Amino acid sequence: MAVRKVERYGETRLLIDIQYKKRDGRRARFRKDAEVQTWTAARAEEKRYLLNIANHGEPYEPGAGPAASDSGDSSGANAAPKPKKTFAEVVTEFRETFMVAELKVTSRKGYDSVLRASLLPKFGKLRVDKVDGKAAADLDLALTKRKLSRSTRNNTQVVLRSVLRFAKSRGYVEDRPANLPKLKQVGQRILEIPSDDQVEQILGVACDTHRLGFTLMSDAGLRPNEVRALRGKDVQLRWENGVAVGGFLTVREGRSHGEIHTPKTGQREIPISRELARLLAPVVVKSAAREAYIALNDAGEPWGQFGLKQAFARTSKRAGVEGWSVYCLRHYAITAWLRAGIPVHVVQRMAGHTNLSTTQRYVHFLKEDLEEAARRLPVRRRGDGEKN
C-alpha cells in the first residue's frame, strides 16, 4: 500500500510512499507526508501523484512541483539529498537540536555518553550514508568481544538508530539502513529490597539531614531526582494538637545534573507517614518559604547529583548493611505499601509507574516473600492419643 502509517519521534504520521519507473526506465521512489493527515485525504493525494506518474512520468505535473531527483524522492524535505556529511557533523546537529528539544536531561547524558564512548570513535570520520547495517553489526560484534552487557549494546544501537533517523529527516540520507542489528532480549533485573531490620539499621545510624532524604525514599517512595527537587510548597502536613501526624507530598518536579524537569511519569500525590511527618515538621516550619528545598546536605545546600548515593554508601557501611544501592529504599517503600494491603492500582499511582506491569513485579516479589514465610511456619505433630 502506497499510504501507510509511520512512527516519527513518538508521533504517528500518514506517509505516501510510491515506487515507480521513470520514462527512461530508471526505478525511482517518491515519499512525503500527506498534506492532510486523514486516510481519505491521503489516498486522494496519492491518486493525484499516481495519475501524474502515468501521464508525465513524475509525481508532479511539469513545472508544478519539485523536480524529481535521480533517487525519485521528490518530496520537499526529502528532495535531492543534501551534500553528504560525516557522521560527526550530523551528530553535532543532532546534539544542538534533537537532543535539546526532545530528550530529558538524564537521557541527554546517556546519549552523549554513548556517542563519545562508542559511536564517534567508530563512525565519526565516515560519511553518514556509509554507516549501514554491516557497519552497525561490526560495532555490535566489537562491543560483544569487549564483554559489554546486552543492555549496553542495545543502548548503543538505539542511539545509532536515532542519529540515522535524524539524518534522514534532514535529507542527508535517503533512508535508514534496513538491516540494522536486532535489539537483544534483556532479562529484568532482580529487585533489591532490604528487610525492615536493615532499613531500621540504616536510618538509625544516619545523621538528621541524611535521615530525612533517606526516609523520603523509604516511606514515600521518591526517586533520588524527586528528593533533590522537593520544595516547601510540595509538602502539606496534617497536624493534631500541634504535632504533625501525616499529610501529602506533591511530586511536581525532578532535578538531574542541576536541571529541573518534569518527573519521569508525571506529577502525583503520596501520603506522608507519621515518621516522615515527624522529620518534615521542623524543616517545613523553619524554612517556611514555599520555594525552599526541603532535603539538604550537610552543608545546608540542595543535594547534588550523586550526593544521596554517596551518603547512602557511607551510612550503610556504618550500619553494617552493605551491598545495597540507595534506590533499594524506594523498592522497600513500594513493597511495604503492598504488604499493608493497599490495592495494586493505588500503589501504581503512588509509585509513579506508567505501566501496571511494573508494579506487579513487586507483587510477584511479595508472593515469594509470603511463600518463604509459609515454609518457615512450624509444623505441630499430632500426638498418638490426639483425636482427629
Number of domains: 3
CATH superfamily of the largest domain: Intergrase catalytic core
Low-confidence stretches: 67-81
**CATH A-level architecture of the largest domain:** Orthogonal Bundle
Mean pLDDT across all amino acids: 85
Shape designation: elongated
**Strand order across the largest sheet:** 1-2-3
* DSSP helix fraction: 40-55%
Strand content: 5-15%
Q: What class, by secondary structure content?
A: alpha+beta
In N-to-C order, the SSE pattern is: EEEHHHHHHHHHEEEEEHHHHH
Which sheet architecture does the biggest sheet show? 3 strands, antiparallel
Rg over CA atoms: 29 Å
Walk me through what this model shows.
The protein has helices at residues 39-56, 87-96, 98-102, 105-123, 133-145, 150-169, 196-205, 208-218, 224-229, 274-287, 307-318, 328-339, 344-351, 356-376, and strands at residues 3-8, 11-21, 27-33, 235-240, 243-251, 254-256, 259-261, 268-271. It has 3 domains: 1-78, no CATH class; 87-169; 196-373, hpI Integrase, Chain A. The protein starts with a strand and ends in a 12-residue tail after the last helix. The protein has 388 residues and is α+β, with helices and mostly antiparallel strands. Helices cover 46% and strands 13% of the residues.
